[in-house]
Amino acid sequence: MARLVAPELAAQRAEAQSKLQGAESQRAESEAKLASDDNTYQRLKAASATPGVVAQNDLEVAQRAVDGDRARLQAVRESVDAARAALKSVTEIEGYLQVRAPFDGVVTERNAHPGALVGPASGSGTNVPILRVEETARLRLVVPVPEKYVADMTEGAQVEFTVPAFPNQTFSGKIARIAHSVDAKTRTMPVELDIANPGRRLASGMFPEVLWPVRRSGPTLFVPTSAVARTTEATFVVRIRNGDAEWVNVQTGEMDGKLIEVFGDLRDGEDVAARGTDELRPGAHVTTKQSSPDSKSSGK
């Protein structure tokens, strides 16, 4: 995607190559000297088989010369390996001058142009990438799901959503990863959806509206919204039992038209006042009357 130019690296590579060539020349010279001294030692050793031809001291000197040559050759070979490793290191660093994309995608942002000066992370332009590449054939949608809706989520479930660019079209994604941890600040749980985008109609950064599926582990009760009374102390409905009024504390859930979901000490089929109010005190005697079908609870 981009090629950087660093003249100092070229100079370092030329220096490393020169050192490697010098070390290899020293190795060749050491190998030749070892071969020559070893040949001399072998001839002296063969001649020493005849008594009085070669002095024992000359034979020992020749042997020590061969041992010294072997030690110097080993040191030179290690120098060659070190020079080769240094050259490889510089060559690998030069490879970083070629900026390659780690995957196929689209260049969506370019912050450097031909001739621009780029530097390490400690220099100017820190945290500003040269290029930004995005793979748009497959997208990820992160949904902050409110705490009260995280029950019964399953990986692999399909979730529908829409985007402002295509208001009349519905897209879908598969639940791929669930955080299983609620953010203490927002009281939401991040859930990631994998979105297949072969036509690349969707773009990263779009703000979708998600139709999140809400499920309950069991059936729940609904009462008319007007049946729920709220005071500074409690939220309750007025239950009518044997003609007497009772206050039943409840928690509210989802709304469905004129009905609202309630959780509390209520049972299916029990009578509640269609209009909850704190003026209807506990123990007050009332006469019940059937309300309209669209405003009654699961019972009456």
Structural summary, described in words:
This protein is α+β, with helices and mostly antiparallel strands and 300 residues long. It contains two helices and 15 strands. Strands 10, 11, 12, 13, 14 and 15 form a six-stranded antiparallel sheet that branches. α1 (7-47) runs antiparallel to α2. The protein starts with a strand and ends in a 28-residue tail after the last strand.
Question: How are the elements arranged and paired?
Answer:
Layout: E1 2-3, H1 7-47, H2 56-95, E2 98-99, E3 106-110, E4 131-134, E5 138-146, E6 158-163, E7 166-178, E8 188-196, E9 209-211, E10 221-224, E11 228-230, E12 235-241, E13 244-256, E14 259-264, E15 271-272
Antiparallel strand pairs: 1-2, 3-4, 5-8, 6-7, 6-9, 7-8, 10-14, 11-12, 12-13, 12-15, 13-14
Task: Tell me the strand percentage band.
Answer: 25-35%
Structure annotation, total helices: 2
What order do the SSEs take from the amino end to the carboxyl end, as H and E? Answer: EHHEEEEEEEEEEEEEE
Provide mean pLDDT, rounded: 86
Task: Compose a concise summary of this entry.
This protein is of the alpha+beta class.
Considering the chains and any ligands shown, give keywords for the structure.
single chain, 300 residues, alpha+beta, Elongation Factor Tu (Ef-tu), domain 3, 4 domains, six-stranded antiparallel beta sheet, five-stranded antiparallel beta sheet, 2 helices, 15 strands, disordered C terminus
